[in-house]
């Protein structure tokens, strides 16, 4: 459902929401190490998110990435849209091109309710909502 790119981006954004601020910017290499993803690839994803104003960045010796209060209020689906678009979330889990309720794959009706609920969660909840779960110890970002 989600590409590795979207997974990395979501983890990075949530890591920033929990650990960074305007006064405490975090470099891509530190984020990559903390969440266990390749640094060069994550850097490209963070640049995309910054360019699309889903997170903020600054250059220089004290530069890095962070989220403003406004960016924390973005729905998590915005991160996925910036990286993959939403079509990937609607694709058949078996990879069939013509999977639908009218022409379902063998697992369509088993998976569709989960996909709908997952998409609803991403559309209705903010970055801050999910970051709060991490802060409270109700969810984790690390393996």
From TrEMBL:
Matches recorded under PROSITE patterns: HTH_RRF2_2
Domain of life: Bacteria
Entry's transmembrane regions: none
InterPro entries referenced in this protein's UniProt entry, alphabetically: Tscrpt_reg_Rrf2, WH-like_DNA-bd_sf, WH_DNA-bd_sf
Gene Ontology cellular-component annotations: cytosol
SUPFAM superfamilies (alphabetical): Winged helix' DNA-binding domain
GO MF, any single term: DNA-binding transcription factor activity
Identification of the protein by name: Transcriptional regulator, BadM/Rrf2 family
Organism annotation: Salinimicrobium catena
